[in-house]
Amino acid sequence: MLLGLTAATIGSLVGLGGGVILVPVLLYLGLIGWLDVSHQVAVGTSLIVIIVTALSSTLSYLKQKRVEVQCGLLFFLASGPGAIAGAMINQRMEVDRFAIVCGLFMIFMSFMLMLRGRLKKKKEISWSVTKRYIDPRTGEEYRYGYHRGIGLIVSFLVGILTGLFGLGGGAFIISMMILLFHFPPHVATATSMFIILLSSIIGSFTHLYYGNINWWYVLALAPGAWVGGRLGPWISTKLHANWIVLILRILLIVIGIRLIWQGIVG
To answer: Which residues lie closer than 8 Å to 151 by C-beta, 6 or more apart?
Structure first.
């Protein structure tokens, strides 16, 4: 329960879903002999717990009116099929080399987020869909938008990574929304959890088919994950957007290092 609570709180706070914590911890507990868990089972079980986390946090974020539902549904149209493809790739091939490349890219995105203020264009956004958001805590106004075609392409890749590594996909979708589309961090994290909820449901069906889910572990993790899914959104209301981005950047580096290590040691 403590593991589920911790993973869900951090995951829902920054929109990552919690897989970044669940998968490596489950694998470590299997390595030291506390659990009987393979990489595939760790990923499949993690996806089920992520569904619990994402449902809990999405309900909270909807009450806070931070979820871009239409945007989330659009991106899900591509990330859902991608999650199926990623789960199939996870089952059929070794992904060590790809993990190294993926890890390096996530570290690169962390540094790009650090420079996001310099990357923003000063002129009015000219995406196919434009939005406006006022932070109720600070009164700061954000103007943002998204391009449907770019969003669909990137979301499909996000879905593949969701099924492949059990990371929830949030790290990539949030980076896309903040860096490419200038989403305010609070809206990006909330919308990310909504997308993760939908794509994780799809990805979990494939892992269920292959028998990669340990339901006893799910039952142990789920209660904490539900509470953490509510706790993360509450904490986010107390934090400035820059703090959320800082936590996200740190987690991107942690995820990147873990993927690189996973690729090196096999």
So the answer is: 71, 74, 75, 78, 176, 181
pLDDT in tens, 90-132: 666 665 666 777 788 788 888 888 877 665 554 455 677 888 8
pTM here?
A: 0.85
User: Tell me, what amino acid is at 176?
Assistant: M
Cα gap 24→260, rounded to integer Å: 13
Contact 91, 210 (CB under 8 A): yes
CA dihedral defined by 225, 227, 231, 233, rounded to 10 degrees?
Answer: 70
Cα dihedral 156→77→209→7 (10° resolution): 70
Q: Would you give the distance in Å from CA 219 to the centre of its chain?
A: 22
Whole-angstrom Cα distance, residue 182 to residue 129?
12
Measured CA to CA, the distance from residue 233 to residue 245 in angstroms comes to 14
